[in-house]
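User: Can you predict the 3D structure of Acyl-CoA dehydrogenase? Sequence below.
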Amino acid sequence: MSDDTARGEDEGLAAFRRELQAFARSACPPEIRAVVAAGRKVTKREYQRWQQILHDKGWGAPGWPQEVGGTGWDIRQRLVFEEVMAENDCPPLYHHGLGHIGPVIIRFGTAEQKARLLPRILDGSDWYCQGYSEPGAGSDLASLQTSARLDGEHYVINGQKIWTSHAHEANMIYMLVRTSRQAKKQEGISLVLVPMDTPGITVRPIRSIDGWPHLNEVFFDEVRVRADNLIGEPGKGWTCAKYLLERERLPPANVARLELVRRQVTRLVEEAARQAAGRRDFSGLLHKLLLCEADSKGARVLMAQATDDLIHQRPLGVQPSAIKLTCADVAQRLTTIALDAVGPDAAHRFLAEGGDGESAGVPEATWIQNYMFTRARTIAGGTSEVQRTVIANELFGTA
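Assistant: Sure. Here are the predicted structure tokens for Acyl-CoA dehydrogenase:
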């Protein structure tokens, strides 16, 4: 039985998978695949180069409709695309533009906004970050205080955002701002796009425990942005935010990336066992890897069910929460296995070097950093506690 037959794919989808396989192996530069295969952090340099290659092929936006420059692929094709790219150590697509704000612009933007903004996401010209969380508005996002007042043809923004991933390298930010305090808090929020080089914006890095530069706080002091950069209706940004968050928790990439990490960690454990030459027993780690593989396949089944529901326009219910919860848990378990494989001495030397990702004396730093990075997986994008509450309320009803 072929792998495609075992997957239950018809010949059309199997042929599509083979086309993707051939493209991934020939088109993705070896130096980029090496970064992904080693579990190193993918930077803007790798993301943009790969995005340009995909764009030139016509595959720059697998999840977008053809009329706005996407592939027009259905959800099954998108899932196969993500799986094949992960299997071949190709970088994931940069989510903020293609997976987050792009679909919001497609759904809520004007014809002028679509024509002006979407092509620059497709070719990688615009690199977005997300301005949602604030010091007093994280899980309770509707409590945000960053304000935007209308002044002629501009909004004037004042406030602060925090935990803003990639703000130091982005040239655009999509952000939630409060444009009214008259209605209940969810109804006074708007979504606006702001160029990061606008006067009055200050970006300050936040040093995180993993040593990778990715988190920032962003300050806005009388920042003027064109009023036609507001997406959707004024005061209706909460609708856009919910639309984005539903898709953030249910992209096919989540499950595909999980399988990629599992394969990376498996290679790491096998290599560590080979080098140890019997001096350490790795059977316990291999057993844990098998359990992670089972849960990874379970996440894929959940994703397949959600995919079928999307195709047939059935309500998704708690499936996005269940998939997000599963992927975050397995990712943490996998990187814990990786940390056990490199051993406590490497972790001690990494910390002794100051936890710097460029520490030349700690070759195992990548997996120590991955371990620390994934600690946030059960917080970012909705905490695991919140996801469990959502699932419990659906199953048992609210008290």
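The longest strand covers residues 215-226. The chain has a mean pLDDT of 87.
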